[in-house]
Each structure stands twice: as C-alpha cells, then as structure tokens.
Write a structure and sequence with these properties.
heterodimer; A: 187 residues; alpha/beta; 6 strands; 13% strand; B: two-stranded parallel ribbon; 7 strands
Chain lengths: 187, 167
Amino acid sequence: METEVIDKSKISLGSSPPGIEGPGFFATKLDQVIGLARANSIWPLPFATSCCGIEFMATMAAHYDMGRFGAERLSFSPRQADLLMVMGTIAKKMGPILKQVYIQMAEPRWVLSMGACASSGGIFDTYSVLQGIDRIIPVDVYVPGCPPRPEQVLDGIVKIQELIKSESLRRRQRPEYKAMLAQYGIE
Amino acid sequence: MEELLTLVEKKLRENFGDHIISAEMMRDFPVFAIKRDKIVEVIKYLYDDPEMEFRFLTDLCGIHFPDNKGEELGVIYHLHNMPKNWRIRLRIFFSAEDAVVPTLTTVFSAANWMERETYDFFGIVFKGHPNLKRVLNVEDMIGFPMRKEFPLEDQTREDKDNTMFGR
C-alpha cells in the first residue's frame, strides 16, 4: 500500500479573531475570544429518536469524528449541554418532554434540528406527529435530509460554530431574545 | 381447523343459544359473531370450561365500518388455547351512537391496556373498566383517530396546498 502523502498546503489552522497584534500582545474583543472558546468546545446533547440518531452515531465515530470540531464530549444531562441536537421524529406526545429538556439547558444554548422529521414532520404528516420541533422550541440550524449524511451533520455543526463565534455576549439579555422565547411560552 | 369451528360452535350454541349470531371460517380461522351483552360471559365460559381452556388473550381491538348502519363499530377478541394451540376470534358489532361494551378486565388483566387503546382510537367505552383514559395519544386530543371520519393529516399545517400535493 502506498504511503499517503499529505499536501500541507491543504491544511488550514483555525484563525484568530480580528484584533491588534504587536510584539508580545494581541488585543481583541472579549465577545470574540469567548465565542472562539465556546465554538470549539461544544457539549452536544443528542436527542435521538430514530434513524437520524444512527447517522449521528456514524458522525461521532472514527470515520467522520465530530471530535475534530471540539464536540466529542456528549452531555447526557441537559444542564451541562450547550447544543441540543434533535434527531428523529418527535411525536406530539413527546413534545412536552423535548421542551422540558430545552428549558433545563442553561444559557447560552443552541438547537440543531437534524433531518426532515425533526425539521418539518417529514413523511409523517399525521395527527400523532409534531410537524417540526420549531413549533415548540426555537431552532438555530436545520439540517435537511432523510436521513442527512454525516457530512451534512458536520456542516450543521460548523454553521452552529459560526453562530456561536459571531454571537454578542449581550444577545441573551436582550428584550428581543426574551420576546422570542416568550412566543414559545418559555421564560 | 374446521373441527375446531364445529366443536366450539356446538359448545357455545348449547350454552348461549341465540346469543351466538354466526360461526364461520374466515380463511383458516374460526370466527364467531356474538351479541354484545353476552360477550364477557362467553369469554368467561371459554376460559373456564375444561375442554375449551382459552386462557390467553392474544388481542383485543376495535374496528370501524361506517357504511354498516347500526353496526358501525365493533370489537374483536382473539383467544388462544396454549396447550392445544387453538386460536379463535370473537366479534361484536354495535352502533356508533351506543358504543358501550362491558369490560373484559374481569376475566383478563391484559385487557386493561388493550381496552384503553381501543377507547383511545375508536371511542368505544368499556363499562366497568378501572382506568379508562387515553394510553397512546396526547391526553387533550379531540376525537378518535382510527374512526374513518377522522382526518389523517395534521390539520394545523399551512404550507401544504393542492398544487404541490395533488389534493
């Protein structure tokens, strides 16, 4: 078997946020430093109910390895999680449980909706299935597909990272944010 | 299975007479139509009789035929005699306005959740049931989803129109 030659020009390291650099110091905004730290150490809470959950397992495993994005540590307690990943069909009866999990998460928190079912009900346009989790909780990133490929999930994670990096520290204290949560009946 | 049909039919006709409406083979399965008021007594008899010994309730479910006026709703009982591996099916039919059936929980504890499910999906009330409330659907649901008039699709969606979805 041939030894794989790594083309070093294709390797890119994470870039530092914009700021002023000089000998021995680097000055930037606190928001951006915190955003950088948060974005690269996401603790996801997998809320997997069906086949998207299987695809998520592949995303976590060695081939796709979500750990490369700093999100290898899953949190099975909502209180310690940053990112709620909803993967699979959510029946109407499960809706209040999902909402409870979201409410138990501490701010700042993000939500990724993976797959057609979580995003819109998917093929299950029926009386017993919730037609998209955004009817009960706010969603930051939707990953389409039935089920999406692991690459798409990683793309969704990168999108979440971009949101985290660019988020202002005051965003979650703003009245607009509170009003948005109030629309869902969440304080 | 023809022998089983004849045997059970003879036993039932001796004991319950006119309350047995019909006895027939449906494919390879003996099926008995019973009058609603006697259904629990019939099943109790099939349970207790030393020759019958139908002591396993495989299934209990509802059915809805809206075109059968006066007999729109039904309940179907599947019984199993484990030692002899006999299976039979009992059916009762009644009108949707008067969907009340005596509970089978007095004979089979297993009927408890099955009757709750049947109530949940068909709105059939089991008189005497210890805890008759919805078991699978959300508690605040209006209507009974397995009845034919119940719309299958979620009624709260606004994005599906006829041009896109062929309705």
